[in-house]
Amino acid sequence: MNETTITAQPGTPFVDVVREFDAPRERVFRAWTDPDLVPQWLGPRGLTMKLFAYDARPGGSYRYTHADERGEYGFRGVFHNVIPNELVIQTFEYDGAPNQVSLDTTRFEDLGDGRTRVHGRTVFSTIENRDAMLAGGMEHGLRDSMERLDEVLAREPQK
Amino acid sequence: MTVDDVENRLDRAFTALGDPVRRALVARLSRGDATVNELAEPFPITKQAVSRHIQVLEAAGLITRSRDAQRRPCHLNAAALEELTSWIDTYRLEVERRYRRLDAVLDTMKEQEK
What we know:
The complex is a heterodimer of chains A (about 160) and B (about 110). With about 160 residues, chain A is α+β, with helices and mostly antiparallel strands. Chain A contains 2 helices and 8 strands, in the order ββαββββββα. Chain A has a single domain (about 5-125), classed as START domain (Alpha-D-Glucose-1,6-Bisphosphate, Chain A, domain 4). In chain A, β6 and β7 form a beta hairpin. The radius of gyration of chain A is 18 Å and the shape is globular. With about 110 residues, chain B is mainly alpha-helical. Chain B has a single domain (about 5-115), classed as Winged helix-like DNA-binding domain superfamily/Winged helix DNA-binding domain (Arc Repressor Mutant, subunit A), CATH 1.10.10.10. Helices cover about 70% and strands about 5% of the residues of chain B. Chain B is built from 5 helices and 2 strands, in the order ααααββα. Chain B has a two-stranded antiparallel sheet with strand order 1-2. Chain B is elongated, with a radius of gyration of 21 Å. Classes of the chains: A alpha+beta (about 160), B mainly alpha (about 110). The interface between A and B is medium-sized, with 32 and 32 residues.
């Protein structure tokens, strides 16, 4: 199992994510940038992803939504730079928090033997925005847990 | 407890840990309880300044102080630290799921390339 390393140092606006994949760099890069492949993995479980644009070229833009029974969440940004098989720099903005734009830099490192290490750094505009984003993940997780608990409770025979 | 309560507490804890001296104090207390004097010793700042840092950590719920009037040793609240870790863990879980799906996509691509 390839472990994901996430670093979010207190007092900084960064989130660093490092992950290795059992695939050559060209393939990882293609999965990362091909509009047919991106919806197959990007976005939280249980949410339907709709891709409206995904033009992974310097100056290109992207836009997608995640939908669940509670509503639709839109995300968009611009590719600042894309170097095939090496680098993607893009902005990221959630419609629910307009003008809080973060910057994602993703580097693809060839490890040889058909393996690739992906380094991602997200820079938020403020530490507070970073913490709010991370806490959003927590909220989602809590909600998932509560729903699973509901399911378990529903299965329990009534006394 | 509501999500807001949890978030407010996490905000306080992360703000408290945004300072290098306070992180060093927490690291020291992870090895065992200590008095303000003992905690102040390795720092080139006044005991009063260390006291203020301790008050911030205490307000954030990261440390507690016993009622022993003379010594009042500081004690690390392990449960509060664990909560910070599990907060990161939920985010990790989200990212991990996403990358496992990517693993599957990469496997499919490999089959198609054959």
